Amino acid sequence: MYRGRKDKGIVMGKKELYTEKAVFIIKCMLGAYILTAGLLLLLAFILYRFGLSEKVVSVCIIAIYIVVTFLAGLLAGKKEGRKKFLWGLIMGVLYFGILVAVSLVVNKGVEDVAGNMLTVFFLCAGSGMLGGMVS
């Protein structure tokens, strides 16, 4: 006997359940990257207007990563309801994976990305997991 998830009185099969979760993850990642783009544009405007130093800009970029992955983890934890920390961690790791893939394509190499890659990984994964736990 199959024990599918019930949404609004409809019993869902495994395939529909996995499809629903995959669509949610894609939407969540898309929203996270739209928010990231908006915040980076705002940072670029502030940089242009006030002439911030490179160190301040680097800290702001990392803060944007933390805030966005926290929100993605929060959203995933609220949606799933069970194992919230795990869903937050998944969101943080996926965010980091896409970030590294895009950086590798744009920079055409690992040299520019590898400097603080491990730190950014732990920040993204940790803040996503924290967002999931808080939800």
Describe this protein's structure.
The protein is an all-alpha fold and 135 residues long. The chain has one domain. Helices cover 79% and strands 3% of the residues. It has helices spanning 14-50, 54-80, 84-107, 117-134; strands spanning 6-7, 10-11. Strands 1-2 form a two-stranded antiparallel ribbon. The radius of gyration is 17 Å and the shape is elongated.
Task: Summarize it.
This protein has 135 residues and is an all-alpha fold. It is 79% helix and 3% strand.
Order of helices and strands: EEHHHH
Please tell me what the overall shape is. Answer: elongated
Can you tell me the residue ranges where pLDDT is under 50 for at least 5 consecutive residues? none
Our estimate of the beta-strand percent is under 5%
How many strand units? 2
Query: Could you give the order of strands across the largest sheet?
Result: 1-2
The biggest beta sheet reads: 2 strands, antiparallel
Which structural class fits the helix and strand makeup? mainly alpha
Number of helices: 4
Number of domains: 1
User: Mean pLDDT across all residues, rounded?
Assistant: 88
Helix content: over 70%
Cα distance spanning the termini: 32 Å
Radius of gyration over C-alpha positions, nearest whole angstrom: 17 Å
Summary tags:
135 residues; mainly alpha; two-stranded antiparallel sheet
How is the secondary structure organized here?
Layout: E1 6-7, E2 10-11, H1 14-50, H2 54-80, H3 84-107, H4 117-134
Antiparallel strand pairs: 1-2
Helix pairs in contact: 1-2, 2-3, 2-4, 3-4
